[in-house]
Write a structure and sequence with these properties.
Structural class: alpha+beta
Radius of gyration: 12 Å
Strand content: 35-45%
Low-confidence stretches: none
Order of helices and strands: EHEE
Protein name: DUF4177 domain-containing protein
Number of helices: 1
Oligomer: single chain
Strand order of the largest sheet: 1-3-2
Number of strands: 3
Mean pLDDT: 94
Organism: Actinotalea fermentans
Length: 52
């Protein structure tokens, strides 16, 4: 069975692509983007398989 680790990342509107490209290069897969907890901005939820 695959085990996962997760991350939440605040997205800066003018740098969204660069942020997601960097996390993707590190092996993270984007799961969902939602509005931030304060109602402003966006937060990305990412996952990647645990090594081992």
């Amino acid at each position: 069975m695959t085990r996962w680790e997760y991350a939440t990342v605040p997205l800066i509107v003018h740098a969204t692509k660069a942020i997601l490209d960097q996390w993707g290069a590190d092996g993270w897969e984007l799961v969902q983007v939602v509005t931030g907890p304060d109602g402003n901005g966006l937060v990305a939820y990412l996952k990647r398989p645990l090594a081992g």
